[in-house]
Amino acid sequence: MSLDAATASASSRVSAGSPGGFLSQRHSTDLSKYNPEKGLKTVAIAEVAERHARRAKDATRLLKAVELKLTEQRKFVLWWDGQGLNKAGSPILTDRKGLMAGRDGIPDSVTVHRWRMRLKDERKFDLTLSDAQARCVKVCEARQGQSDYAKATNTGETEWYTPAKYIKLARVVLGGIDLDPASTQYGQRVVKAAKFYSKDEDGLAHSWPGRVWLNPPYTQPDIAQFVTKLLKEYTAKRTRAAILLTHNSTDTTWFHQAANVCAALCFTRGRIAFLDRHGEPASPTQGQAFFYFGNKPQVFRKHFELVGLLVRRG
Predict the structure, then answer these.
(1) Given 80, 111, 143, which residue is the final one in a domain?
(2) Which of 101, 196, 231, 306 could form a disulfide with 127 if both were Cys (CB 3.0 to 4.6 A apart)?
(3) Model's pTM, two decimal places?
(4) What is the pLDDT of residues 25-83, one digit of tens each?
(5) In the chain, which ranges are continuous DSSP H helix?
(6) Angle 88-93-98 (CA atoms, 0-180°, nearest 5)?
(7) Contact (CB, 8 A) for 35 and 76
(8) In whole angstroms, what is the distance from residue 295 CA to residue 297 CA?
(9) How many C-beta neighbours within 10 Å does residue 78 have?
(10) Strand pairing class (288-293; 264-268)
(11) Nearest to 27 by CA among 15, 10, 9
(12) Phi, psi (5° rounding) for residue 287?
């Protein structure tokens, strides 16, 4: 299969239309119909596409190739473990005559174990994919133009959306999202807050009761104003709990103010590839940080420990 065909195959398997679309597709995998030979060929094709895209510094094709490779490796692990193991550690195959570990391109048990540790658990898979995406972005940064650079700086575009896997973690930690004070109708397809405020409605002009998710605009003075507002609402106990996502701008006053009030802080491992309305990733020039405000920092730690470095106050 040609590189273009491989990329087309990746595109058909990875939804670029909305955040989280590709993740939802893998949940519907029917392993009873899984063909391991075909799956491993797809992995090989994706690896070829990945090498070509990396050399070309084509971020879009590289991301698709990596997503396809990891998805197929996870499917293979789930299939492998579903077969049962013999005493030698090889899968017991009753319906795949001639398919044996170490032969016909089938990975050995060590390789499968390595895939299993990173990919079988759904949460670890999401985080492995996130880390891979961040590395892809870093590899391709040298070819990004000024318009792409502006996507990730504090003076660029503000309408960028958090990948669904992080929203999912935040929702679990908070127990739900009552308010997203800096959002759009499109963004709510993923956040699904009980209430949100758009730019026209000016979230700064309202109170923020309940459980809050905040990914503020990263332009100045907006970001400082939104962080200050969150701290006031939390201190006044109108905001019961919150998770704030920003760049790791540790040199700024607002970052230190938030760090001094939050109960826990997570510095991401790698960079979050924020998405535009078409599902295309931005290229951040720095890492990010999640701030947790609330009385359950241990729950935050449990769910964000694989996202990055955890720091707990007190």
Answers:
(1) 143
(2) 306
(3) 0.55
(4) 444 456 778 888 888 999 999 999 988 888 787 777 888 888 899 999 999 988 888 87
(5) 3-13, 21-27, 36-56, 59-83, 109-119, 122-140, 146-152, 164-174, 188-191, 222-235, 253-261, 297-304
(6) 100
(7) no
(8) 6
(9) 16
(10) antiparallel
(11) 15
(12) -80, 180
Question: What's the structural domain count of the chain?
Answer: 2
Other beta carbons within 10 Å of 267 = 15
| Beta-sheet pairing, 239-247 with 288-293 | antiparallel
Quick one: pLDDT band at residue 156, thresholds 50, 70, 90?
A: very low
- Give residue 192's region: left, alpha or beta (phi > 0; psi -120 to 50): left
| pLDDT 10s digits, 248-294 | 999 999 999 999 999 999 999 989 988 877 777 776 778 999 999 99
> Do residue 134 and residue 154 come from a single domain?
no
Residue-level pLDDT at 27 = 44
pLDDT-derived band at 160, boundaries 50, 70, 90: confident
Q: Are residues 198 and 266 in the same domain?
A: yes
Show which of 126, 143, 160 is a domain's final residue: 143
CB 282, CB 276: distance < 8 Å: yes
Residue with tokens 């609402």: 233
Radius of gyration of the chain (CA): 21
Helix (H, G, I), strand (E, B) or coil at 243: strand
Average pLDDT, the chain: 79
The string of DSSP letters for 193-250 reads -SEE--TTT-GGGS---EEEEE----STTHHHHHHHHHHHHHHTTSEEEEEEEEE--T
Bridge partners (DSSP) of residue 210 are 239
